[in-house]
């Protein structure tokens, strides 16, 4: 008799439990659907160093798209990618300032948010900038810098090696060895020197760490003593303009470094693009259900 009483009670308890669980899931689902993109990321866009042109463009985007409640978080390229990596691993929403080429596009499934108002402009290029007088004083180094040109895929391969744990100089040496034919076009018509010194400035972006280590390795193989000078974007341009460094190969134009270019124009020599087809903008993981900056409203 006892068993006959307990069985209906157990079934009733189970039924109530399942119903409650179902209601909880429904409530959670409805709550999740009601959360806006802004709320899901605390109305924050994870940025990089405050002096970068990408940050200026993003501030302009916030104004242009009337995203008054949003905040652009200043930091560094390394901090941005660390935040992106953590969010991606947990499949959480995140919005970051991004640029191509960058290793994160090889490691993660990401997408740029559409920019219908064209705030971030068209594709950019990275240019080589040399101090005045370098061609006369160090003609072999000047010619190598002038002939240096590669692709986003080339740069991406070096960045991935570095991200996977190789020291930048080792990754650069590997790439140079595996791409001897391309490197030979950069050194064509030059002579090996005996310890001639040259200084190359760069910003600590993954892209520029890759490119500067590669060109440093090429110059070293030609007998140069190379000094790599890590600085922020402003001092990088100032150094070339005032002659305290010989060159940099990190001029993102026409948008990212536009202010620096215009400020010092006439005080440096523009050797033209060493990489074409770059891009900047707002980047999100592909699993986020958002496609345009306008959706942030």
How is this structure best described in words?
The chain is of the alpha/beta class and 297 residues long. It folds into 2 domains: 37-122 and 282-296, D-Maltodextrin-Binding Protein, domain 2, CATH 3.40.190; 124-278, Dipeptide-binding Protein, Domain 3 (Dipeptide-binding Protein, domain 3), CATH 3.10.105. It has helices at residues 2-34, 37-40, 53-64, 77-89, 104-107, 134-137, 139-147, 152-163, 168-178, 180-187, 206-221, 233-242, 258-264; strands at residues 44-46, 71-73, 96-100, 110-112, 124-131, 197-202, 225-230, 247-253, 268-285. The strands form 2 sheets. Strands 3, 4, 5, 6, 7, 8 and 9 form a 7-stranded mixed sheet that branches. Helix 11 (206-221) links the parallel strand 6 and strand 7 (225-230). Helix 8 (152-163) packs across helix 11 (206-221) and helix 9 (168-178) crosses helix 11. The longest helix is centred in the first third of the chain and has 33 residues, at 2-34. It is globular. The termini are far apart.
Topology:
Elements: H1 2-34, H2 37-40, E1 44-46, H3 53-64, E2 71-73, H4 77-89, E3 96-100, H5 104-107, E4 110-112, E5 124-131, H6 134-137, H7 139-147, H8 152-163, H9 168-178, H10 180-187, E6 197-202, H11 206-221, E7 225-230, H12 233-242, E8 247-253, H13 258-264, E9 268-285
Parallel strand pairs: 1-2, 6-7, 6-8
Antiparallel strand pairs: 3-9, 4-9, 5-8, 5-9
Total of domains: 2
CATH superfamily of the largest domain: Dipeptide-binding Protein, Domain 3
Helix content, binned percent? 40-55%
Instruction: Specify the structural class.
Output: alpha/beta
SSE string, helix = H, strand = E? HHEHEHEHEEHHHHHEHEHEHE
The tally of beta strands, per DSSP, is 9
Strand content: 15-25%
């Amino acid at each position: 008799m006892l068993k006959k009483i307990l069985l209906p009670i157990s079934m009733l308890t189970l039924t109530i439990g399942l119903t409650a669980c179902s209601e909880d899931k429904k409530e959670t689902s409805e709550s999740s659907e009601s959360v806006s993109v802004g709320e899901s990321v605390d109305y924050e866009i994870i940025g990089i160093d405050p002096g970068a042109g990408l940050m200026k463009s993003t501030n302009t985007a916030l104004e242009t798209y009337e995203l008054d409640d949003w905040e652009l978080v200043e930091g560094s390229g390394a901090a941005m990618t660390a935040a992106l990596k953590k969010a991606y691993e947990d499949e959480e929403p995140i919005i970051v300032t991004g640029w191509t080429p960058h290793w994160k596009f090889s490691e993660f499934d990401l997408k740029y948010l559409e920019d219908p108002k064209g705030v971030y402009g068209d594709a950019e290029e990275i240019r080589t900038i040399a101090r005045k007088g370098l061609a006369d004083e160090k003609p072999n180094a000047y010619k190598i810098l002038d002939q240096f040109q590669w692709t986003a895929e080339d740069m991406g391969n070096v960045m991935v090696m570095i991200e996977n744990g190789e020291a930048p100089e080792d990754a650069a040496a590997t790439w140079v060895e595996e791409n001897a034919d391309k490197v030979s076009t950069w050194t064509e018509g030059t002579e090996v020197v005996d310890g001639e010194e040259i200084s190359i400035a760069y910003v600590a972006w993954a892209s520029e760490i890759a490119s500067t280590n590669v060109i440093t390795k090429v110059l070293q193989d030609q007998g140069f003593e190379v000094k790599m000078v890590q600085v922020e974007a402003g001092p990088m341009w100032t150094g070339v303009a005032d002659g305290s460094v010989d060159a940099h190969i990190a001029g993102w134009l026409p948008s990212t470094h536009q202010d620096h270019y215009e400020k010092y124009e006439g005080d440096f020599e523009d050797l033209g693009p060493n990489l074409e087809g770059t891009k900047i903008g707002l980047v999100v993981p592909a699993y986020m259900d958002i496609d345009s900056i306008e959706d942030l409203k």
